[in-house]
């Protein structure tokens, strides 16, 4: 039965390395440990054709697939790294994968909606003047090295592009630079881009595609917003307000001012602010949408359980919203009491995850006592 299920997944077009990126990469080779019979023709070592059914090792089929990582051949020594913690059952991410709509013809529609959000948040259309003409050289998406799995997931879904580390900076880029691949991405995201419209319109002209304007009132549970949070958003802890907040940011332009996030997370409405800041000698302007009330926490949690971020750090933080609601009342209990220590450990674990500079966060000194300093130094 396991073999039949594995073959159904493979023959149905499911990418054999579309895996649980929260518990490390896991190949589906473990469920393809069976022999596939290929008919009706086989090739003998001498090259002559012989009728009949020929056994084919599935590892050969998997190794002949293009690698999901910069087209390097996949080794026959299949990686089988199910997390020890989750080996007794399926993870939350695997459950989402099994429930998602996977098309045999390529990535799902939701993937491209999210990709539009990723591009609006941290993408770039590299358009240059070449021999008097405007030429689209590449489409790029940039993220912090901590969140590189976002880039590898895009590469795994599209089966093209390359990942390039930015020299002397803690960032990496996913780069698509061939005409057919750029045209494919532009076609698939046309009608869902909302803020980087100037470059996107020019890119549409370059690949001879008519630009489609998106609905700037983003509908409920649309994955677009998860993409913007992945690249240019944040999940933060407001110690004074005793709540976990979610925000996303866009460059200020005529299109971002029209963008409406009032309905994308049912039951939660963001507060919008405009701000200016200097980066070197350049003054930058941006619009921030922030979900910043206690009542917003459960709707935010439910939204990201359905549209998880590719950033493990942000997903970890948002996944703690529900248990935090249960213990946030302990903040005002006497210092050193069992309840207060439960609150302190929870918030410190929350801020420490994939954050090497957690000790520089101002509020941590308010919840750390001498015993806890020693406890966290030993971890």
UniProtKB/TrEMBL annotation:
Keyword set includes Mitochondrion: yes
Domain called Homing endonuclease LAGLIDADG: residue spans: 115-187
Record keywords, A-Z: Mitochondrion
InterPro entries: Homing_endonucl, LAGLIDADG_dom
Lineage: Eukaryota, Fungi, Dikarya, Ascomycota, Saccharomycotina
Recorded name of the encoding gene: orf379
Mitochondrion as UniProt keyword: yes
A GO MF term: endonuclease activity
Pfam families linked: LAGLIDADG_1
Name of the protein described by the UniProt record: Homing endonuclease LAGLIDADG domain-containing protein
Domain of life where this protein originates: Eukaryota
């Amino acid at each position: 039965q396991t073999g039949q299920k594995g073959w159904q997944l493979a023959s149905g077009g499911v990418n054999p390395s579309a895996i649980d990126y929260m518990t490390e990469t896991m190949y589906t080779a473990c469920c393809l440990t069976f022999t596939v019979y290929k008919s009706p023709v086989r090739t003998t070592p001498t090259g002559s054709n012989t009728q009949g059914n020929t056994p084919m090792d599935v590892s050969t089929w998997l190794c002949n697939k293009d690698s999901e990582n910069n087209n390097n051949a996949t080794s026959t020594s299949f990686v089988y790294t199910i997390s020890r913690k989750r080996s007794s059952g399926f993870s939350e991410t695997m459950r989402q994968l099994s429930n998602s709509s996977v098309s045999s013809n390529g990535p799902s529609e939701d993937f491209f909606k999210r990709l539009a959000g990723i591009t609006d948040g941290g993408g770039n259309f590299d358009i240059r003047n070449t021999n008097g003409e405007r030429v689209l050289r590449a489409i790029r998406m940039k993220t912090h090295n901590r969140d590189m799995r976002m880039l590898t997931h895009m590469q795994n879904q599209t089966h093209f592009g390359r990942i390039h580390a930015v020299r002397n900076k803690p960032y990496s880029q996913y780069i698509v630079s061939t005409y057919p691949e750029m045209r494919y991405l532009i076609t698939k995201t046309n009608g869902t881009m909302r803020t980087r419209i100037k470059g996107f319109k020019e890119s549409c002209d370059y690949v001879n595609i008519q630009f489609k304007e998106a609905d700037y009132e983003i509908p409920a549970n649309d994955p677009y917003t998860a993409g913007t949070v992945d690249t240019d958003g944040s999940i933060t802890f407001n110690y004074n307000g005793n709540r976990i907040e979610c925000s996303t940011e866009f460059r200020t332009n005529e299109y971002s001012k029209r963008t409406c996030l009032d309905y994308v997370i049912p039951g939660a409405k963001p507060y919008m602010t405009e701000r200016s800041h200097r980066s070197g000698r350049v003054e930058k302007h941006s619009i921030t949408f922030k979900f910043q009330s206690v009542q917003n926490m459960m709707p935010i949690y439910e939204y990201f359980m359905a549209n998880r971020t590719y950033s493990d750090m942000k997903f970890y933080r948002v996944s703690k919203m529900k248990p935090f609601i249960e213990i946030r009342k302990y903040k005002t209990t006497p210092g050193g009491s069992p309840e207060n220590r439960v609150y302190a450990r929870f918030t410190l674990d929350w801020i420490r995850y994939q954050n090497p500079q957690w000790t520089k966060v101002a509020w941590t000194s308010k919840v750390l006592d001498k015993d806890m300093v020693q406890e966290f130094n030993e971890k």
